[in-house]
Amino acid sequence: MNYLAHVYLSGANDLIKVGNFMADSVKGSQYLNYEKELQHGILLHRHIDSYTDAHPIYRQSKHRLHEKYGHYSGVIMDILYDHFLAKNWGKYNAISLPDFSKNFYKILENNLDLLPEKTKKIVPYLVAQNWFESYASVTGIEKILLQMDYKTHHRVAMHEAVVELKNNYKEFENEFTLFFEELKESSKIKITELYEIL
Question: Taking the model in full, what pTM does it have?
């Protein structure tokens, strides 16, 4: 899952959201250097990633992209799944996507000093380009994939995955809907466990 899903699945706690958002920049046992709720967010992020990667529905979605995009099919699929979350946001949250996005951007700005340097560099782009809301349109997804092409030195043309998205739109959306219900439940259980053990 990509940034929007990770933050959404963090629940109501601001620091768990921040920890989840920055988790890719925190390696191994480095999470122990952070306060408890940030640790929860980092460990939740790792749980979401491992649960997602192993899930047969997600793997079915990713398989459609694997022949053309290889190793990057998972990166692309995470972004495509965020598209379906953003597009269908009203089914998952009573707070509008624009308000949810603004609230989270504000949380990040108020907690910049907690973020690893690598994550701090992302924040201005996230806010200025309003990534969360841009996920809701196919055009927005294509722009994000173009940015990923640049970041990965154009090893594969990830932006071309919008063709697969359009050609298999209903299948991808149905798979996301089924999978996300299970991921939501698993994430809730993980948050409860983290409060009990940490």
Answer: 0.95
